[in-house]
Amino acid sequence: QVQLVESGGGLVQPGGSLRLSCAASGSIFGINAMGWYRQAPGKQRELVAAITSGGRTNYADSVKGRFTISRDNAKNTVYLQMNSLKPEDTAVYYCNADLRTPYGNALDAWGQGTLVTVSS
Fold it and tell me: Tens of pLDDT along 57-93?
């Protein structure tokens, strides 16, 4: 069994910063890509940022220059540093991991989501 546990969401004023963390645990042999998605009310879930095991990153155009994704492979943890937050960044943020179990299975795992609210 694999768990992704997110933390770091909350309420922040426009222009402020938050840092999200997501730790993967359980029956994990290796993790390929890790990423953050978000879903705002009435909208589809969208990719925010992703990072490969080698450190290659990919960002949504709407967050480029403001958000930074990073990971600690030794801790199976991914981070999302969010700066210059805007009200339109308000959403539930979900962690995702493309991983392999010790039994050779590929697994697309998701966290439970953490709410980020940007409002004055």
Answer: 999 999 999 999 999 999 999 999 999 999 999 999 9
